[in-house]
Design a protein that fits this description.
Blueprint lengths: L1 H23 L7 H9 L10 E5 L4 H6 L4 E9 L5 E9 L1 H4 L4 H4 L5 E3 L4 E4 L11 E9 L7 E9 L10 H4 L6 E9 L11 H16 L9
Antiparallel strand pairs: 1-2, 2-3, 3-8, 4-6, 5-6, 6-7, 7-8
Length: 222
């Protein structure tokens, strides 16, 4: 009897601890922090610097399957040089948002990496080294007769700098919400280094806007 009671007590402790942790990060309900983060997506300006944005519809079934609770999907074009790119910004609970990186998602539609992932630091104001970092990878649709190159920059933020930790699921697990951003460029010129890509110029213009309108909890990196 004593052994059975001890066993039941241990199960109860695990269940209570799991419930407390789940309640803290909003697993069982939508926390106020998460609700506020979702509402801030609508504040992001359509145009930033020389970049002009146009919204587009994103597949609702994909959003539901990925457990994305809020998103922004836009096509941006640079008014000066004509460079164009696509931005997908999503928000939700850290568990679902921390997974499904492009090397996984795009493999399902026939794309394969054509270069090793690299890390790119986005220059801050005045050209200094910024606190924000993105991972970038090039892809090709190898089954196509004329495989079109695709370059994707991505990163996460839980209210602070944009980061790409080795284990995002573990790193962001305690957070009540998480943002993930993809910046996608197609038709990338052969040999163009990621740091020279127009997407970096776009991010340099966009990130201050996101800090102002989206990342209300923005704090220095530790």
């Amino acid at each position: 009897m004593a052994r059975s009671l001890a066993y039941l007590a241990s199960i109860a402790i695990v269940l209570v601890a799991g419930y407390v942790q789940g309640a803290r990060v909003g697993r069982w309900s939508q926390s106020k922090d998460l609700t506020d983060a979702l509402a801030r997506i609508d504040r992001v300006a359509m145009d930033v610097g020389d970049w002009r944005g146009k919204p587009f519809e994103f597949d609702a079934n994909q959003l539901k399957q990925a457990e994305i609770l809020g998103h922004l999907a836009r096509r941006y074009e640079n008014a000066r040089d004509g460079s164009a790119l696509t931005v997908l910004l999503v928000c939700g609970r850290p568990g679902p948002i921390s997974v499904h990186t492009p090397d996984v998602c795009y493999a399902g539609i026939g794309y394969e990496p054509s270069a090793d992932p690299a890390s790119v630091a986005i220059p801050g104001e005045g050209g200094g080294e910024g606190r924000d970092a993105f991972t970038v990878t090039d892809f090709r649709k190898t089954a196509a007769a004329n495989p079109a190159p695709l370059r994707i920059f991505w990163s996460w933020s839980n209210g602070g700098p944009w980061r790409t930790p080795d284990n995002p699921r573990l790193t962001f697990a305690p957070s009540p919400y998480l943002f993930k951003m993809y910046v996608i460029r197609d038709g990338v010129a052969a040999g163009m280094k990621p740091e020279n890509d127009p997407a970096v110029a776009f991010l340099k213009a966009m990130l201050p806007e996101l800090r102002k309108s989206l990342l209300a909890d923005y704090a220095p990196a530790h």
